[in-house]
Write a structure and sequence with these properties.
Shape: rod-shaped
Radius of gyration: 19 Å
Number of strands: 0
Protein name: Exodeoxyribonuclease 7 small subunit
CATH class: Mainly Alpha
Distance between the termini: 50 Å
Number of domains: 1
Helix content: over 70%
Largest sheet: none
CATH architecture: Orthogonal Bundle
Keywords: Cytoplasm, Exonuclease, Hydrolase, Nuclease
Number of helices: 2
CATH topology: Helix Hairpins
EC number: 3.1.11.6
Main location: cytoplasm
Strand content: under 5%
Subunit structure: Heterooligomer composed of large and small subunits.
Length: 71
């Protein structure tokens, strides 16, 4: 299942979906299925990035609080 994919795996699959769509030659049903897969992968990548951003912000807050206690 794609929910278990890491960021890099999801990104790589999304790149492949885009390549297939750009290459053309697909039926409407195939194109729609690929588009839906791409949408799902893009959202998964976004969730991974949001989680990473949150971790960075938490780490920065922790550093700022530590720096403030030393003054």
């Amino acid at each position: 299942m794609t929910e278990e994919l890491g960021y890099e795996q999801a990104r790589d699959q999304l790149i492949e979906v885009v390549r297939e769509l750009e290459a053309g030659g697909l039926s409407l049903e195939q194109s729609l299925a690929l588009w839906e897969k791409g949408e799902h992968l893009a959202k998964l990548c976004e969730r991974h990035l949001d989680g990473a951003r949150e971790r960075i912000e938490d780490a920065l807050k922790s550093v700022e609080e530590t720096d403030g206690d030393e003054g």
